[in-house]
Amino acid sequence: MECETFQSYIMNRGGVTQSQFNELTPFLRSEAFSKGEVLLQQGETCKASMFVEKGLLRAYTLDESGKEHIVQFAPENWFIGDRGSIYFNDLSYFIIDSIEDAEVVFITDEFIEKASELSTSFRKFNKKLLHNHIQHLQKRIDLLLGASAEKRYLNFIELYPDLLLRVPQWMIASYLGITPESLSRVRKSLADKNFKPY
Amino acid sequence: MECETFQSYIMNRGGVTQSQFNELTPFLRSEAFSKGEVLLQQGETCKASMFVEKGLLRAYTLDESGKEHIVQFAPENWFIGDRGSIYFNDLSYFIIDSIEDAEVVFITDEFIEKASELSTSFRKFNKKLLHNHIQHLQKRIDLLLGASAEKRYLNFIELYPDLLLRVPQWMIASYLGITPESLSRVRKSLADKNFKPY
DNA sequence: CGTCGAATTGATGTCATTCAACTACAGTGG
DNA sequence: CCACTGTAGTTGAATGACATCAATTCGACG
């Protein structure tokens, strides 16, 4: 069982005590995936959220023409999953796979319920997480509603400076909703204006 | 106190009993707004989510050039609010105003907490609402990542057939992330292919 | 009836896409 | 160790989708 990162995450940030955590371990399961492996296929059902201990995952869809649309990246300490599938038993809308070798902890609804029962501060923390997630998604929508390719890219750099170095450019393009060629041109134009991300 | 719609909403769908509801009424406040009135200004703090009893609200932002980006519509039985502002005390990112004369019930976090305490089924219901909201936002992002103006419009019609008749076209355009002129042309082209929404 | 905003239409512009060619580099097998 | 192959990234030219600007029509409302 490899959940140290998750353990310290919910202990430090979620206010869960050691003894509470011990009670919760039976509900946890972790698994390692290698780069490129698919954790959730479109059309399967997703049984749990996934917490990334190590590595980097992504959630994306495929359109009719086979193009990928990356909806979310999940590096260390992030959650990822298909909530429609988890909570409404829909078939998964997203594909989730790993961009780097990864360690993942599966967080079932059962775990969340149990933890919420044991710890008020976890309950509050979880609530904040959800609201934070919603807020984040809304801001992303706002950005997609009319910001230029350049603005989206600058925003991405600001939000995920660490991912810049870990994610191939064509995936960033897909996350931004533009083509790799366009992103390349945006970067060039920024370089010409001698903009330096790092 | 005008909360009949909300009352039947959380009794029928949230499984709250009459006596539980009675205990909760002290936490509720409702208010009427007329068309065009602003309920939340950008930069204010938002103290509560709002449940729409009657009428139609919208949440939007203004960009540097003064253009509106509509992030959400909220007709009867929908919630709207700025979660960043409610839960993290940020200044509101959105402006919320009313498109039609409206009756609104203010749902404070206190109310949610109290109701969750009183009723397990409300707690579950609320959880589902949140996850449903997240799923919905993710699908919207997926759509904005690369779907054509026409596809977005068709998707809008499918999701909100009722809103088609109530929301002026330029607001729909703003929700879709295109200009009113473009939407007009999309509609024309659909009409030429003799597409009929109703 | 006149006014004002919404919607349509046309002419033109701009930004991003598409398609194709080319470079760079990493991984594979001889 | 080097050729072969495949993928990422860049660049160019042509196209296309949507935006912009301007003019006109339509319709609601005073």
How would you describe what is shown here?
The structure is a homodimer. With about 200 residues, chain A is of the alpha+beta class. In chain A, the strands form two sheets. In chain A, strands 1-8-3-6 form a four-stranded antiparallel beta sheet. A four-stranded antiparallel beta sheet of chain A has the order 2-7-4-5. The model of chain A has no long low-confidence stretch (mean pLDDT about 95). In chain A, strand 4 and strand 5 form a beta hairpin. Chain A is built from nine helices and eight strands. Helix content of chain A is about 50%, strand content about 20%. The interface between A and B is large, with 36 and 36 residues. Chain B binds a DNA duplex (30 and 30 nucleotides) through helix 9.
Which labels suit this protein?
DNA-binding, alpha+beta, 9 helices, 198 residues, homodimer
Largest interface: A-B, 36 and 36 residues
Q: Taking Cα atoms only, what radius of gyration of chain A do you get, to the nearest Å?
A: 18 Å
Order of the strands making up the biggest sheet of chain A: 1-8-3-6
**What is the number of strand segments of chain A?**
8
Residue windows where pLDDT falls under 50 for at least 5 positions of chain A = none
Q: What helical percentage do the residues of chain A reach?
A: 40-55%
Write down the oligomeric state: homodimer
How many helices of chain A in DSSP terms? 9
- Terminal CA distance of chain A: 37 Å
Q: What is the approximate shape of chain A?
A: globular
What is the averaged pLDDT score of chain A? 95
Largest sheet properties of chain A: 4 strands, antiparallel
Instruction: Give the amount of beta strand of chain A, in percent.
Output: 15-25%
Structural class of chain A: alpha+beta
Order of helices and strands of chain A: HHEEEEEEHEEHHHHHH
